[in-house]
Design a protein that fits this description.
This protein has twelve helices and ten strands. By secondary structure, the protein is of the alpha/beta class.
């Protein structure tokens, strides 16, 4: 039997005020069993922040944009246009490969010709709080699976779940369906994944492809994130209309409470309730953002530039 042809892929990473995790990420990519052809860093340039040190990595190319040009959908769309390879891997600057098999395992689901995208398992970092650790295990279980339109009745909104923290897309399917939306306040990954599902493709969860990625968000941060999440769902009824997110959120809260009680951590429950309340309030307000005054929308969002007029990306290739 002939050996399977190696799948050529580029990695695309939006970068803004990076910390030491970006170096760990690049080091991890350099050690992969399946190497990327290129690593495109789309740097939202800010005063006093330089990526000169990144040039020591031979496959890295740095592309600079202005802060007002960044968009969750448009910036990644621009990154996709830089690549000539057959697979696109999108990551965030704080997602660190857990081992050298990340890209290899992320590519495996594409052996099925109907898979349009695959996404990695996210593991908690060392400083991750207990509730967030459990949330990671709830959203990213140990078992891999491929989700299709047939799973909507059972999985609901989770059928469309895909995360650009670390996700790969087949370029031919990406182009066929129009790629990431040019403007997205948030959730550009699920919008594209939903489009793929509705077009008859599968979304693979590759549990053996692992990145270390977690956050200890405050209630305020959860409020802002869920406001923007709801705005993205409201703006794309062609994907999300008729599919509730609240039921999945309630299931997570109930499951987390049971987990805390089982592990004799009941003192964590009040904090969980506060966090969940912030998520719920932000989400509900986001679903009705069109009825809110502009000043309130700007107080609720975490992405104020989205509400300004759309800008055209002007690319400066540094290398």
């Amino acid at each position: 039997m002939l050996e399977e042809r190696r799948k050529r892929a580029d990695v695309i990473i939006p970068v803004y005020r990076p910390d030491e995790k970006l170096k760990k990420l690049l080091e991890g990519l350099r050690k992969q069993t399946h190497l990327a052809e290129h690593i495109f860093l789309i740097h939202t340039k800010t005063e006093g922040v330089s990526l000169e040190w990144c040039k020591e990595y031979e496959t890295v190319q740095i592309i600079e944009i202005r802060p007002e040009e960044f968009d969750h959908g448009g910036t990644r769309r621009m990154g996709a246009e830089l690549s000539d390879e057959e697979f696109l891997i999108f990551m965030t600057q704080d997602a660190v490969p857990q081992d050298q098999y990340l890209i290899e395992k992320l590519m495996e689901p594409f052996q099925d010709s109907k898979v349009g995208a695959s996404y990695a398992r996210q593991l908690p970092d060392k400083d991750c709080r207990m509730v967030e650790c459990y949330t990671r295990s709830f959203n990213y279980p140990q078992e891999s699976r491929i989700k299709t339109i047939e799973d909507v009745d059972k999985l609901g909104i989770k059928t469309f779940f895909c995360s650009n923290v670390c996700a790969a897309y087949k370029k031919s399917v990406y182009k066929e369906l129009g790629g990431f939306v040019p403007r997205a306040i948030f959730n550009e990954d699920m919008i594209l994944a939903g489009t793929m599902i509705k077009a008859g493709y599968g979304i693979a969860y590759a549990a053996d492809a692992k990145v270390i990625h977690s956050h200890n968000y405050s209630g305020r941060q959860q409020f802002h994130r869920n406001f923007d999440l709801a705005v993205s769902q409201k703006d794309h009824p062609e994907i999300f209309a008729g599919i509730s997110s609240e039921s999945e959120g309630i299931r997570l809260v109930i499951s987390t409470v049971k987990y805390l009680l089982k592990n004799k951590k009941g003192m964590e429950i009040p904090g969980l309730i506060v966090q969940s309340g912030c998520k719920f309030l932000g989400y509900k307000l986001g679903l009705h953002y069109e009825k809110l005054p502009e000043w309130l929308v700007l107080r609720c969002t975490m992405n104020k530039t989205y509400w300004k007029s759309q800008k055209t990306h002007k690319v400066i290739v540094v290398r």
